[in-house]
Amino acid sequence: MKHKALPIALAAAFLAGCTLAPTYERPEAPVATSFPTGPAYKTPAAANQNGATDSNVVAAELGWREFFTDPRLQKLIEIALQNNRDLRVSMLNVEAARAQYQIQRSALLPSVGAAGQASVQRSPADLSSSGRAGISRSYQVGVGFTSYELDLFGRIQSLKDQALETYLASEDTAKAAHMTLVSEVATAYLTWLADQELLKLTQDTLKSQQSSYDLTKRSYEVGTASGLDLRQAQTPVDTARANFAQYTRQVAQDENALALLIGQPLPADLPPGRPLDGQGLLADLPAGLPSDLLLRRPDVTAAEHTLKGANANIGAARAAFFPSISLTASAGTASASLSNLFKGGQGAWSFAPTITLPIFAGGQNIANLDLAKVQKRIEIANYEKSIQTAFREVSDGLAARGTLDDQIAAQESLVKASDESYKLSDMRYRRGVDSYLNALVAQRSLYASQQTLIATRLARWTNLVTLYKALGGGWEEHSVPANAGGASEPTASAASSS
Predict the structure, then answer these.
(1) What are phi and psi of 319, to 5 degrees?
(2) What is the mean pLDDT of residues 133-155?
(3) How many whole angstroms separate alpha carbon 170 and alpha carbon 113?
(4) Residue 138 neighbours by CB under 8 Å, 6+ apart
(5) What is the DSSP pairing of strand 476-479 with strand 347-356?
(6) Quick count: other Cβ atoms within 10 Å of Cβ 183?
(7) How far apart are CA 400 and CA 284, in angstroms?
């Protein structure tokens, strides 16, 4: 019994085949084990508001509803995840890659089918052995398979593994597209808020400068102001008018950009939003993050799946050097007359194995193997570059985060000082103590500092959005009960997809 079982086991192992792909080993990350430190990188408190220790895990798992706390922004992101066409295409690409994988996987099993055949042939007398013209008929019905390749050296298995890695890479690519869309909607919304504030600032400045111009014009008409004073007063008015037209255009274009991202016109019933300089627009992010967790980013994992696919392709290229065995077989009934086709004794079968042994291909197989190895080295470089890019994005975000708050504080102080300077200069001008030029310079400084303050606040918020995405955030959606406070743990989690 043992001697009979041994050949069966060996045959089963032989037919199961093997893979000639090299054992995959993940390349070492070509970055430091921790993020940079220095004056630009400030470390906040060691625990977040939920009492959890700061770590990259917390940032990556922070749901976008918890990070983007503005109700209006949450609604826009929700609509975008349902309607955005680019995200829809990414999800369809995943389905296409899944179908391609299933097609490749099906090659591991024979395709069985049923077929019927009828043949009628007339032979002339001079070609017949009997010397008389005759008609021959044959009928056949059978079940079988055609050209089924025994995967003895893992060629089909390697191609299946490559298709699987391509499918997994497409899933991660779609996940990255999801996170990018969340980030793009947030950035576009913040830009919209900033341009609205710049428009309002310019409108207020225009009113103030128009009032000063009207006063100077009346003084000029009565002879107490010179033509130079009048033209100097006109300059900031025209500048504010030009800026007003510019920001009006930018606000309209911001709305168009948001409409494209969410896949529909902006709804009229959006919830009330929060101002750019308000609190609670975005949640803060934890710091002190280990760099090895960058491997959780979908663009990095997609690059690794592509690398694994290139590794599997080497196995398929190696298998081309070995013999290939294909089987064609069928079993059924055959008869010279249709009436006897299904009677006893009419059984028929055929078995036709084919073996192909590569002898000379002009160096094609060697070139294919060399190409597969080069492609793997290319994908190793792409994988390492994706890690370096991720590391740089997080490091830049942490550096900006550590300095932008100080910059905002300094800019707010500058705005306050410029405002006091302008008020004093304008008062001196109106009392005739000083020329209008000093008031004009002070007003320009105030207006410029106010614009810079809005731009710096926008930079701080957009940097947080970018840092959140760089840390792998934006994929999960956590919902918090309405009666829960900000310190409550999330009670439900779902991955959104279109």
Answers:
(1) -65, -20
(2) 84
(3) 33
(4) 117, 118, 119, 334, 335, 336
(5) unpaired
(6) 20
(7) 14
Of the two residues 55 and 306, the one the predictor is more confident about is: 306
User: Of 94 and 52, which is predicted with more confidence?
Assistant: 94
Whether the per-residue pLDDT at 288 is higher than 80: the answer is no
pLDDT band at 132 (very low <50, low <70, confident <90, very high): confident
Global pTM value: 0.82
Contact 186, 254 (CB under 8 A): no
